[in-house]
Design a protein that fits this description.
This protein is an alpha/beta fold. The chain folds into two domains: about 220 residues, Rossmann fold (3-Layer(aba) Sandwich), CATH 3.40.50; about 80 residues, Alpha-Beta Plaits (2-Layer Sandwich), CATH 3.30.70. The chain contains 16 helices and 14 strands. α9 links the parallel β7 and β8.
Length: about 425
């Protein structure tokens, strides 16, 4: 996929990234980059995690936002800035603009998770919710910028933004110089482009992969020369970009090895895996690197892989749903329907079988009116905690042996 372009001919260079690092030092955290023994064992490769979800605003976006704000003239700062974002860029701009005394207006799509809206307002910015897509929000933001003479702080198609994001890769390679592969989420492309410039300048042979949700694979489509077609929603809303940056595209086309597309269900699994193993919370976009390791495991065997956990701003309701859905996916939470004679003691016999096999009853629901074969029978649906899929198989066999004819409901494959 890469084309032959000299690093010094690209629109952002290592010198730009190093300059950005000097400017933002002390105001943006040098987040941990740590080796994960458990994930390394699971994926059969050396896995290092860059915890950008531990930034003050829980996202890498602070890096580029601050670098851009520090490039403004005194007059530009006094007039104020405006940004368009689904959340993390918004918070990065709002936080550092507030810290620097720069008035900030943030235009966000109507679907933006409430936690991101609330946090952005909490940093002192004026939030405008409008449009059903980033493109619609962007159009309105540009109109406001012209009307009020605000400086537009683009989330990814700006050399100062790209250079700021690239500081992350410098930190990763200092913490783990042995890395031979980086896996980086892609929305508009600013993070991937900046990290690629920095990493390939420091370590020319390093392989770099971008990751997109299959629902929003605009970068992959542009690289293949295809018309862009995206979905309407994704759990990785931070990657929900149709109109990628032209500047990042130039860099990515020249230097990135490949784009990997991951399923929505795999992103959910990755979020749950990071909580269970690393005890760290990521949003959908932040977990796509791990989703790539899950879905393309053979590509990374034996490699030394750095994965960027780029953000942690996830709605608590969505997070709770993901964790419960993952229990179902793993066979640790199941629902079983059985038919019983509607007589005293029948339910007790059923629950005894369940208890004897080591499953735990979470919920019991009787059905006597709808779809029941006989007035003398009842259907019972049990929601049960189980250990894993083999335990589920054992439970179903025991129920069959005791004459209960169980029907397993809603277990994802």
């Amino acid at each position: 996929m890469t084309t032959q372009i000299a690093l010094h001919d690209l629109p952002v260079t290592l010198a730009d990234v190093q300059s950005a690092r000097d400017k933002i030092a002390g105001a943006v955290a040098n987040t941990p980059c740590l080796h994960s023994k458990t994930l390394s064992r699971i994926f059969n490769c050396d896995v290092w995690l860059k915890f950008e979800n531990l930034q003050f605003t829980a996202s890498f976006k602070e890096r580029g936002a601050l670098n851009k704000l520090l490039s403004l003239t005194t007059e530009e700062k006094s007039r104020g800035v405006i940004a368009m974002s689904a959340g993390n860029h918004a918070q990065g701009v709002a936080y550092h603009a507030g810290r620097l005394g720069i008035p900030a207006t943030i235009v966000m799509p109507a679907y933006t998770p409430f936690v991101k809206v609330r946090n952005t307002e909490g940093h002192g910015a004026t939030v405008v919710l409008i449009g059903n897509t980033l493109a619609e929000a962007s159009t309105h933001a540009h109109e406001l910028a012209v009307k009020h003479q605000y400086t537009f702080v683009h989330p990814f198609d700006d050399p100062f933004i790209v250079a700021g994001q690239g500081t992350l890769a410098l930190e990763m390679l200092e913490a783990a110089p042995q890395l031979d592969t980086l896996v980086i989420p892609v929305g508009g492309g600013g993070l991937l482009a900046g990290c690629t410039v920095a990493a390939r300048a420091v370590k020319p042979d390093i392989e770099i992969y971008g990751v997109e949700s299959k629902t929003f694979s605009a970068m992959a489509q542009r690289l293949r020369g295809e018309p862009v077609s995206v979905g309407s929603e994704t759990i990785a809303e931070g990657l929900a970009v149709r109109d990628i940056g032209e500047l990042p595209l130039t860099i990515i086309r020249a230097l990135v090895k490949d784009m990997l597309l991951v399923d929505e269900s795999t992103i959910e699994e990755a979020i749950a895996l990071l909580i269970e193993i690393e005890k760290t919370v990521t949003e959908g976009a932040g977990a796509t690197g791990i989703a790539a390791l899950l879905q393309y495991k053979d590509r990374f065997v034996g490699k030394k892989v750095g994965v960027v956990l780029c953000g942690g701003n996830i709605d608590s309701r969505i997070l709770a749903s993901i964790l419960m859905r993952n229990l179902v996916r793993e066979g640790r939470l199941i629902r079983v329907r059985v038919k019983l004679p509607d007589v005293a003691g029948a339910l007790a016999k059923l629950t005894k079988v369940v208890a004897d096999v080591g499953a735990n009853v979470v919920d019991v629901e009787h059905q006597r009116l709808f779809g029941v074969f006989s007035v003398k029978s009842t259907e019972v649906e049990l929601t049960l905690e189980t250990r894993d899929r083999p335990h589920v198989t054992q439970l179903l066999a025991e129920l069959e042996e005791h004459g209960f004819a169980p029907h397993l409901l809603g277990v994802a494959e």
